[in-house]
Design brief:
The complex is a heterodimer of chains A (about 375) and B (about 230). Chain A is an alpha+beta fold and about 375 residues long. Helices cover about 55% and strands about 15% of the residues of chain A. Chain A is elongated and about 90 Å long. About 0% of the residues of chain A have low confidence. Chain B is globular, with a radius of gyration of 17 Å. In chain B, strand 1 and strand 2 form a beta hairpin. In chain B, helix 3 packs parallel to helix 5 and helix 5 runs parallel beside helix 6. Chain B has seven helices and ten strands. By secondary structure, chain B is an alpha/beta fold. The chains are: A alpha+beta (about 375), B alpha/beta (about 230).
Chain lengths: ~375, ~230
């Protein structure tokens, strides 16, 4: 009967109920979309790393794995690495950011194509001129690019030679020399990393150890497998902090919304609370009723928020599939629900205690 | 402890003082009262006479300042707030002037929730007969706003009786009703008292309503100054 009372109260004030649940839902959606976006970006980065066909990455020793600033390594390392035992192929790559989450890679495209088993072209073909550019399908779709058109990236006019599937090193591939020239990395020619393919992938760990010994910290070798495993939110402190901030905000907003909603409910229902107390409801029972209402709001908000996260994904992928590759994160649904419920319970406590402490005679006299 | 012959309500030297700011307001100035088990007592008096304060104390809604109050063998002075709440659940049935039904629940649910709050389940034996007697058996699925004032007050009486209380306390039960409904509700209370031997204490300012009771006591300025059989 108490549950019925709770539901009937929420139904009676359905506009307030709906608005409260909507606001909680938006917060839940924010969390799920943020996590989905973080994971999507990392997942696609990992796919692009895997898509190179390399077994080992060689990068400057002091560099953070997720910092892709340009030209920190002399290109002369590439032929040296290529001559090492068990190295089948070594390809130098220069990566630069064209947007906050998007990189363009300069690479010898025929060599790279050989390493990854042959680039597949969804439209057009391989670059044949220094200003030719390849785009992955998501970037091309987001920017409405078509093969043959002239596009501007990094203040440079490129000819779009081909469109390739996603997951191939970078969103945009251009000839290495052109990019080195454009970014001031031509003298001496510098690159960001070396992709290494071994003649026997089973030797990867052994060769990683040997490279690290050989280069003594000047270059750092990491297997693709280890590199990809680092693409996790836990390994990016800044992202973790951002997620904590958004989660904290969600709790605060959930708290405020439910606090306001419950406070209004308590004031509106002063007389009803008086009736319940006169009938023998103890203070804890009154608090229990308010807490149950807050729980229902939080659960409704969570369900709406999960629904909104699907809608947000559809909208985001419809407008920016390359820049914001958001994914659905069902494993975060219970966490988002716990956050929403936590905020709602915090919000219900103060109005609930006010109701529980209400003087029964004054409450019954309330008009 | 109470016995069938001892009063179900026993009040001695009851005083209640409120504080309006720093000014003490003496609402009850030493009340003595006995109510026998199965009696229908009316307390009459003008506004400010202290009858509502007495009602609240007898119902366990407010503690006394001084004096003895015994309800069905329980000494109210010795009860904590929680224990007074439990006494309300099990020993007292309230009927208010404004019916005080929960507006979001049906009449049936309004009755059931009183039972649930007392920690009981299911209808008590013979309750169907009481619903028929009150004339609301076919109105139980309606919400209060779909019921007339008289019907709402009958539902409130049913709610007050569902836990088979020792005492039914009624505060101006006909104050919001027209004459016909007032007479019907008062007749119901009188019949309940006579047929079910339900102890009833009714507060009213209306002498015609008080005439339905077995006995009337009058209050003025916090004193109980006259009794009429």
């Amino acid at each position: 009967m108490i549950n019925k009372l709770v539901l009937e109260n929420l139904k009676q004030h359905w506009v307030r109920t709906l608005l409260s649940a909507l606001v909680i839902g938006v917060q839940v959606m924010s969390i799920l979309t943020l996590i989905g976006l973080s994971r999507g970006l990392l997942q696609q980065s990992a796919q692009r790393a895997k898509g190179t066909g390399a077994d080992i990455f060689l990068r400057p020793g002091t560099r953070n794995q997720f910092s892709l600033s340009t030209g920190q390594m002399n290109q002369k390392f590439v032929p040296f690495v290529a001559k090492q035992p068990h190295v089948e192929q070594a390809v130098g790559v220069l990566s630069v950011f064209v947007e906050i989450t998007t990189t363009m890679s300069g690479v010898n495209v025929p060599e790279f194509s050989r390493m990854n088993g042959g680039l597949h072209y969804l439209a057009g073909g391989p670059p044949t001129a220094p200003d030719d550019i390849l785009s992955d399908q998501y970037w091309a779709r987001q920017h409405h690019w078509h093969v043959g058109q002239t596009v501007t990236v990094l203040n440079h006019k490129w000819h779009l030679a081909g469109i390739v599937p996603g997951g191939m090193l970078a969103r945009l591939l251009v000839p290495l020399k052109t990019l080195q020239h454009l970014t001031g990395n031509q003298t001496p020619p510098r690159i960001s990393e070396i992709l290494v393919k071994l003649d026997n992938p089973a030797l990867t760990n052994q060769e990683v150890a040997r490279f690290n010994q050989l280069f003594r910290g000047e270059l750092q070798a990491i297997s693709i497998e280890d590199f990809v495993s680092q693409f996790s939110i836990d390994n990016i402190p800044q992202l973790r902090v951002f997620i904590w901030v958004v989660t904290g905000l969600a709790i605060v907003v959930g708290f405020l919304v439910v606090f306001l909603s419950m406070y209004t409910a308590v004031v509106e229902r002063t007389r009803e609370i008086g009736i319940l107390k006169a009938l023998g409801a103890k203070p804890m029972k009154i608090l229990d009723i308010l807490v149950r209402e807050a729980l229902v709001l939080a659960i409704l908000g969570t369900i709406l928020g999960i629904g909104f996260s699907f809608a947000a994904k559809a909208v985001i992928l419809g407008t920016a599939p390359a820049t914001l590759p958001v994914i659905i994160v069902p494993d975060w649904w219970p966490i988002a629900a716990a956050i929403a419920i936590g905020g709602a319970l915090l919000g219900a406590i103060s109005p609930g205690l006010k109701a529980a402490r209400q003087d029964v005679i004054e409450a019954l006299a309330y008009e | 402890m109470s016995s069938p012959v001892s009063p179900i309500i026993r009040v001695r030297g009851l005083k209640k003082v409120f504080h309006a700011g720093e000014v003490p307001v003496h609402a009850l100035r030493g009340i003595d009262l006995d109510v026998a088990r199965g009696e229908f007592l009316a307390i009459v008096g003008p506004s400010g006479s202290g009858k509502s304060t007495l009602f609240h104390i007898l119902g366990g809604l407010a503690p006394p300042t001084e004096g003895e109050v015994w309800i069905d063998g329980l000494d109210l002075r010795a009860l904590s707030e929680n224990q007074r709440t439990e006494m309300r659940q099990k020993k007292i049935g309230f009927v208010f002037q404004k019916y005080n039904l929960l507006p979001t629940l049906s009449a049936r649910s309004n009755i059931e929730i009183a039972r649930e709050l007392a920690g009981r389940t299911g209808e008590p034996p013979g309750f169907e007969a009481i619903l028929k007697f009150l004339g609301i058996a076919n109105r139980l699925d309606h919400r209060p706003n779909a019921l007339s004032g008289g019907e709402q007050q009958r539902v409130a009486i049913a709610r007050a009786l569902v836990n088979q209380p020792a005492i039914l306390l009624a505060d101006e039960p006909t104050g919001n009703l027209d004459t016909d409904n007032s007479n019907a509700v008062l007749a119901l209370l009188r019949d309940l008292n006579r047929q079910q031997k339900q102890t009833i204490l009714m507060i009213t300012h209306n002498p015609e309503a008080a005439a339905f009771a077995d006995r009337t006591v009058a209050m003025r300025d916090g004193h109980m100054h006259a009794q009429r059989l």
